[in-house]
Specification:
Elements lengths: L6 H14 L4 H13 L3 H14 L4 H12 L1
């Protein structure tokens, strides 16, 4: 879904995963990415911050935090 830019469907799928497993950092990051692509920048930032609380040293989390700071 991400590869075909189906952002709303992708966000919905990743949201479902995160609701089932709130500690699933990859799902949170992908949900944030899909949300950002739909223009939901504040929401995407909040999701990335949620992932950062779970795994602050995870390389993908650090990368996403830096990207959000640049927006």
């Amino acid at each position: 879904l991400l590869a075909t830019q189906q952002w709303a469907r992708a966000a919905s799928c990743f949201r479902s995963i995160a609701e089932h497993d709130p500690n699933h950092v990859p799902a949170l990051l992908h949900w944030a990415g899909a949300s950002r692509q739909m223009g939901q920048y504040s929401f995407a930032r909040d999701i990335v911050l949620r992932a950062a609380k779970l795994k602050p040293a995870h390389p993908a989390v650090v990368y996403e935090l830096v990207r959000r700071l640049r927006e």
